[in-house]
Specification:
eight-stranded mixed beta sheet, Rossmann fold, about 20% strand, binds nicotinamide-adenine-dinucleotide
Amino acid sequence: MRILILGHGVRGRTYEQYARAHPGEYEIAAIADPVSPSATVRDWTDALETPADAAIIALPDRLHCAAAKAALAKGLHILLEKPIGCSWAECEEIRAAQAAARRLVLTGYVLRFAAYYRRLTEVLRSGVIGELTSIHHLSAISYGKAAHAFCRGNWAREADGTSTLVQKCTHDFDLIAWWARGKACTRMASFGSLMHWRPQNAPAGAAARCTDCPAAVRAACPFDAHRLYCERTDLRYHFPDESDAAMEKVVAESPYGRCVYACGNDAVDHQTVLMEFDGGLTVTLEMESFSARRGRTTHFYGTRGEIAADGETIEIRPFLGAPQTIVPAQRGNHGGGDREIMSAFARLAAASPARYAGILEASLVSHRLAFRAEALRRDV
Ligand SMILES: NC(=O)c1ccc[n+]([C@@H]2O[C@H](COP(=O)([O-])OP(=O)(O)OC[C@H]3O[C@@H](n4cnc5c(N)ncnc54)[C@H](O)[C@@H]3O)[C@@H](O)[C@H]2O)c1
């Protein structure tokens, strides 16, 4: 497939790497980005002038809807990063555009393609823990990643895109919908807020930028930008140049060097959603910024046993018989999901167009749940 890569940030670069490593599957016709030196054009609208079969939409959330509709109108298949749209109305616009164009819209739900989650879902479906009664799912962002994305970064202000829950947890709602096997969510409640990264919580003497902050205040601050970007390396993948010198510059000059208490952010930092599904299955989803560890942890309770899944191991504890631990092999980003989704994209595009609408519909279930939960949080 000849592809256009719209947005050459973290996600766009990931998909580009796959495409370059698999010339038998993909040929890159254009890359659009206003700042990336590897881009061939500056704006996504210009890239759509290049003949192609498909577009990968890895743009900021607020551009997803316009770009998806324009790409579909050009007759392109799309791999659309999540969230599909920033509101349910935008999701519906994309659904209408897909129906008119009859092209594939594959959402960037990489976890569905990851070996770990495939194996976990297989185990659940095997019936080894009987009928599922409840799921407790924690999506732990971690304080460093959350400070990067939802306080200092791209997703700090809801008006620039969408809520933290929609942005971060559409993945989690998608997993939950997968595990609930098409059952309808009959009741829901949701609570959450921005508790901590507010000006009134700034330590006495804190400056607007970490580099200007008194040493004693910085030393006591877990969110000090120098510590997060220069002393650690795990957040550097967000930047095209990961060198020490580039990171010093990020901290000194970019928005990522601002004090976390002075970022004008309004994205919530923690949220809980309670759900009841048809037949009685209950689910709690917790999104948490203030965790030491980043990742997803899920406990499944069933009428014949329990499963504890921590993102690496799957511990099956049946009430009868021996417990078992499975450690699925995970190679690459998102447990291999980034690679697998790219291999699936070309395959699914070549499948019968009759399947396309169902593929988008399955991804919209998670968005419907996320927007509903967000509306309930605001109502309370
Ligand atoms: N599936 C996943 O697990 C996953 C993970 C992270 C991010 N995402 C999603 O992927 C998308 C991109 O996220 P990211 O982390 O790569 O962000 P990013 O900021 O690193 O990349 C976005 C890129 O789009 C470019 N851009 C902005 N305006 C543009 C325009 N008009 N034309 C062309 N390019 C433009 C920016 O310069 C930037 O390089 C987001 O929607 C995000 O929600 C998905």
